[in-house]
Every structure is written in C-alpha cells, then in structure tokens.
Amino acid sequence: MRKTQENDIHHKLSFTIISFLKKINQFFQKKPKSVRYLIKIIVESEKKKVIDYNIRKMLEGVISISQKRVRDIMTPRSHIITLRNNQNLKECLETIVNYPYSRFPVINKNKDQIEGLLVVKDLLPFLTQNEIENFQVSAIMRKAMVTPESKIISVLLREFQIKKQNISIVIDEFGGVSGLVTMENILNSIVGYISDKYKNFSDNINIQKISESLYLVNALTQIDEFNKTFHSHLRSQEFETIGGLIMQSFGRLPSKGESIIIDSYKFKIVLADSRKIIQTEVRIPKSS
C-alpha cells in the first residue's frame, strides 16, 4: 500500500512540476537573458521576502533539470538490484524483502541483458500454495522503458508523466546498460533530500528499523549518514560506505551470515554476491 501511495505522489508531483515550468515561462513578459539572470531574480525575490528559502531552493532545482542529463542523477549499473529470469518465487522474495522497491529489473545472464521489470504487486496471485509451481518471472515481467543517458532530465520528466512511468533503464551510446533512473532521482534533484529532522526510518531507503535495537542497513549507506542516524563515530580512511568499512574490518569479502563487531555495533551480512556486500543487519548497543 505504501509503495502504491508513493507512486501516486510521484505522478502528481511530476505533473505539478511540469505545470510550474510552464508558469515560469508565463511569469516573464520577455524571455530571460540567461539561466544565471533567472536565478538572480529568484535570489532577489527571496531577499525581498517574496519567497522563502525552501521555495528558492526548489525553484533553482526546477531550473537545474533543464541543464542536467540523465547520467548526472542515475543509479549506476553496478548498484542496480536485479532478479534473474530463471529464479523461482522463493529466490525472488529473498531479494525483494531486503529492499523497499516496487520494481526490479529482470536480467538474463548479465546486467547488459535486461529483459524487463518485475512489479512486486504482480507476485500476489502466486502467494498461494496452488499457484507457486506456476510461477515464472519471464511470464509476468513487464516491458522496461529505456532512456539514453544523454537525455535532458526535464524531457524525461515529461515522458514519465505522459507514459505514466516512474522508472527507466539507462543505456549508453553503444546500447549497453549504464544505469537506472527513477522519478525519485528526479525529485531529489529538484527539491533535495528531506532534512534529517523531518526524516524517520520508514522514509529512509538506506536504513530500515526492525526493532528498537535491530536495523537493516544498505551496504552503500555513507558512513557519515550512519553516524548521523545512530550518533556513532565510525571511521575509515579508505572507504566511504558501511559496506567498505565492513570489508576493511574483515580484511576480505565476507559471506552471507557472517558477523563482525565494529565499535560495539554488530554487523551481520544478510545479502552479498561474489563482488560486494549488498545488505547488512545491524544490532546497535544499548547506550545508543
């Protein structure tokens, strides 16, 4: 339900942003001399208290998407969480439950062969015992939207709104997969990430609360973000992410199920592949 509500919000917000872009054009009787000139007017409007700081930042974000390209905001290929087209239902669910996503790219042999998207809600009919044996990823996956990494973000936003999509596979000039872009990537580019004081764990895709002392933490979570969340003091001179810090502490790539204690925090590997840690379970000390 929550993921469906988020999708609805994304569609409504994208429509609002597109409408707002049109109004910006109508605001000026003459075409602004340049983007810099337009931003100058917005800054002066804040100084005159016509708009507040938050509105100014959002306006600057809206203007910026007319200059940025998809490659500037996409999730890189190496960080895409995928499902394989030959996985059974249990194997798919093992990946899905560890990530708060509603859509997963489906691959064949490698990430340059994305065949479609699996929408999580499409699994519901197969959650009964009678239907498990009939499950096939290839039979229920949907066609994936494809976008070149050179496309201007404002153009992609309009395409998302017209096609009622919120995710697209990104390809390079040679047709290879270079990443993934979502409506959330675009919105973050416009309005920025929500301030920590307004953020709770259920809104944080990197850190998910399980109980008072147990959390799921994405291995790509920045060490600084982890420290800010838990008021901890973890440090690494070589790595910036929790996954990197854990690998440094092990002295190797750990396997699923292995645990290690770092500065009183117990990290257990819950998902990993042959190259990297993907998801960890963290038990925080009682004093945190």
From TrEMBL:
<dbReference type="InterPro" id="IPR044751">
    <property type="entry name" value="Ion_transp-like_CBS"/>
</dbReference>
<dbReference type="InterPro" id="IPR016169">
    <property type="entry name" value="FAD-bd_PCMH_sub2"/>
</dbReference>
<dbReference type="GO" id="GO:0050660">
    <property type="term" value="F:flavin adenine dinucleotide binding"/>
</dbReference>
<protein>
    <recommendedName>
        <fullName>Magnesium and cobalt efflux protein CorC</fullName>
    </recommendedName>
</protein>
<keyword id="KW-0677">Repeat</keyword>
<feature type="domain" description="CBS">
    <location>
        <begin position="74"/>
        <end position="134"/>
    </location>
</feature>
<comment type="function">
    <text>Plays a role in the transport of magnesium and cobalt ions.</text>
</comment>
<dbReference type="Pfam" id="PF03471">
    <property type="entry name" value="CorC_HlyC"/>
</dbReference>
<dbReference type="Pfam" id="PF00571">
    <property type="entry name" value="CBS"/>
</dbReference>
<dbReference type="InterPro" id="IPR005170">
    <property type="entry name" value="Transptr-assoc_dom"/>
</dbReference>
<dbReference type="GO" id="GO:0005886">
    <property type="term" value="C:plasma membrane"/>
</dbReference>
<dbReference type="InterPro" id="IPR036318">
    <property type="entry name" value="FAD-bd_PCMH-like_sf"/>
</dbReference>
<keyword id="KW-0129">CBS domain</keyword>
<dbReference type="InterPro" id="IPR046342">
    <property type="entry name" value="CBS_dom_sf"/>
</dbReference>
<comment type="similarity">
    <text>Belongs to the UPF0053 family.</text>
</comment>
<dbReference type="InterPro" id="IPR000644">
    <property type="entry name" value="CBS_dom"/>
</dbReference>
